[in-house]
Amino acid sequence: MDLVQQLERDWKRNQLICKGDHIIVGVSGGADSVCLLAVLSEVRIRWDLTIMAVHVNHSIRKETAVRDADFVKQLCEKLGISCQVETVDVPRLAKENGLSVEEAGRIARYDTFERIRRECGANKIAVAHHLDDNAETILFQLIRGSGLRGMGGMEEKRGRIIRPLLSLTRKQIENWLLEKNLAYVTDETNLVQEYTRNKIRLTVLPYLEQQISEKVREHIVNCGKLCLEADNYFVNEAEKWLEQNGEDDKAGTIEIKSQAFEQLHPALKKYVIRQVMEKICGRKKDISYVHVEEVIQLFQLPVGKSVNLPEHMYAKKTYEKVKIGRCNEKMEAPEMEIGKCHMILEVFPYKKNEKIPENTYTKWFDYDTIKNTVSLRSRISGDKISVVKGGNKKLKDYMIDAKIPREWRDKVPLVADGNQILWVVGYRIGEAFKVTKQTEKILQITIQKDDL
Predict the structure, then answer these.
(1) Which CATH class for the 341-449 domain?
(2) What span, in angstroms and rounded, lies between the C-alpha atoms of 74 and 87?
């Protein structure tokens, strides 16, 4: 059985592609997408398929990006397939939305595919991910601390998106292209190791394959399938439990009975809370393990205790329940905003055991720990804050952990010594600059609103 016959058999068994489908095909010009387009072209008559190729220029590269677009257009002309080239300024989108270039590019591609699908009335979007991509994704999710769903990897079908090559390895794809004498281009950004996924693809997986097991990719993907099955099971069980024990007021609030909840297995507790939060805010993104654990802990706390959650949600302990909902009122911006305030500095000797003032907008710092000139500004790339003595955290990560809404993060005033943050005004000061028994001089900083 050749590669095309193997794929056709899998598609029929999984109902991935059906006769008469109208498919948008994402084509970068790389080996994977050239294989996908060529295979679909080869079977389109007997499957009665309508195919349209879409190439997205991410505006990251210059000369080679034009080369790739021209290559895709020429390939489509050779195969007799219509082609549409779209250009998106991915670096700008990444900067404006606080995303990595990788994530912004992924969002831009799928948004473009979906828009064109609607415009031409297509019913499916085909992308060229293969088994090696899936292994890479699963390993990436494992490293970043994902749960079962993340470690389940890619699915052959998700909504209108299909992955017809997911059962093939990269080696199988390249061998087939060689047999068919089909050329492809290489995106040089796939060879740059500054991207995490590239490090996994170019260094981690080859090392594991050479030193641990030749079938490491297949083993990782098989483990991912088990994770996905387990995740689907827990999601279904959580939904069934919530139907019996969750009280939905249809106005954005769901209450969970404490007594029934405490009888659940710890794993199912997490799924119940996550399901409630996703139902209220309508999305999975930004809901982390930490947020779920905070809500679970509420069941053990006194009546009236509450926690703030992403997407303007909250959870609150009542007498026999925990209520999870969305804040109805518009959340107010911070009292102090960058560009609307100034700082007043004063240096004086520290008298041992002198009481440090507890004022939201006046703070004391150990003067001798400051290396450069102190400035009042908004955040920039590379900022970090010491959250434990001798240990730093990226400012972005701190703001996420502190639940500072994304729309506020560029407005919060920061007192900085280079890229080291002394004070996130209104929140906390860096541990490295706090007054200690060894402090000799105090730098007092007061933040005041500008006169209107």
Answers:
(1) alpha beta
(2) 18
pLDDT band at residue 387 using 50, 70 and 90 as cut-offs:
confident
Residue intervals of the chain classified under CATH 3.50.40.10 are 341-449
Name 166's Cβ contacts closer than 8 Å, sequence gap at least 6: 129, 130, 131, 134, 154, 156
Predicted structure pTM score: 0.65
Residue spans in the chain of domains classed CATH 3.30.465.60: 249-326
Task: Give the pLDDT confidence of 227-286 residue by residue, as tens digits.
Answer: 999 999 999 999 999 888 888 876 678 889 889 999 999 999 999 999 988 888 776 666
Phi (first) and psi of residue 64, to 5 degrees:
-70, -25
If one looks up domain 3-224 in CATH, what number appears? 3.40.50.620
Higher-confidence residue: 301 or 40?
40
Name the percent of the chain lying above pLDDT 90.
49
Report the DSSP beta bridge partners of residue 446: 344, 362
Q: Among 217, 186, 191, 188, which residue's Cα sits nearest to residue 202?
A: 191
Model confidence pLDDT, tens digit, residues 77-92: 999 999 999 988 888 8
Specify the CATH number of the domain 249-326: 3.30.465.60
